[in-house]
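Hello again, I could really use a second opinion on something today. I've been staring at a protein lately and its backbone has me curious. You're getting the sequence in one-letter code plus the fold written as tokens. I'd be grateful if you could look everything over and explain what you see. No rush at all, and the record is pasted right below:
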Amino acid sequence: MSKLWQKVMLFAISLVLGVVCMTQIRTTNNVLGNEDPQNIASQLDNELAELTLQKNELREELDALKQTAKENEEIYDAKEAELERLKEELANQQILSGYYEVKGPGTIITIDSEPNSYVSLASSHQYILALISYLNNAGVEAISINGQRYTNYTEIVPVLDHINVNGVALVLPLEIKAIGNSRTIDASLNFVGGIVSQLSQIGYTIETENSSEIFINKYDGEKEFKYAVPITIEEE
């Protein structure tokens, strides 16, 4: 009886193990199919190689995009620098044109006649022109004469006993404002035999005052160019 029971138990265990093995085999076949494991490994290697290739292509595309972005940034920086240069040049041209009010440090020169003396601005206007030339030589950046802005097109014309500046009649005293380096202006005007000495010899008094901030009005007139035209890059 005991041996029979052992045989029955052994058969039951074997049957259970058989069922478990069959279940494992079926599960493996469902997962892997009926393909050879070597084929599956080969397919996985191919998929890995394809993914690696795609990753490398994406990396190359990313590097290309980074290079393009760097080049665009360099172009943008160059254009920004050029724009700043043009803005600075425009600001300089605006000051030189005289069509804008300006301020800055400089010197105020007052010219008058000596007491009990008669001097004619009309007959000595060339001295005023010489004084303006000395100021320009000193590197001043803006000049006005009794509020009249001096530009490249300003005329100083003797009329009767006075002078016309920008078509406006001016008489003594003359107040000439010059924006620039005060030391350079003083050295240009007051050297021995200079313009200040020459004006003093013909009966004028000259006073100079340095200022940390001088205001100079803009030029009120208009200049129309009828003959001169700018030369374009294509024409050069």
Q: What stands out?
A: The chain is about 50% helix and 20% strand. Helices lie at 2-32, 37-97, 125-137, 182-189, 195-201. The first helix runs from residue 2 to 32. Residues 190 and 196 are 6 Å apart (CA to CA).
